[in-house]
Design goal:
Blueprint: E1 16-21, E2 26-35, H1 38-43, E3 55-60, E4 64-65, E5 74-79, E6 85-92, E7 99-100, E8 106-111, H2 114-117, E9 126-130
Parallel strand pairs: 2-3
Antiparallel strand pairs: 1-2, 1-9, 3-8, 4-7, 5-6, 5-8
Amino acid sequence: MSPAGLGAGTARSSSRYRVLNLTRVTTVALRCRVAGSFVARGIGLMGRSRLADGEALLITRTSMITMVGMRMPIDALFLDREGRVLKVAAGLRPWSLATGARGAADVLELAAGAAAASRTQGGDVVVFEAL
């Protein structure tokens, strides 16, 4: 399933997903939650001190994120509506200014180093598989 099918207001049979990189045939995240509501998108990962191995958060309907209020570095994948990676922002530091990607529909936030570990690059296609 592409990220576009996971937006708020879309019926979903699962609230957790596995994220796969179809281009590289790798696993990007073993457990991904979806932040689809206005409040959930605004909070994101703020206040969290770490992400467990294989954990991710998909923030729907946004092309930009900020690291203000964050307590850990992260990797961010900026995805278009079809799940194509438009930009990989690796090692974003806490309290850094906003970053984004033109044309992005969603942002997948991962533990720092997860993008490199899955060999994910711009142009790759990722999909979300219900758990």
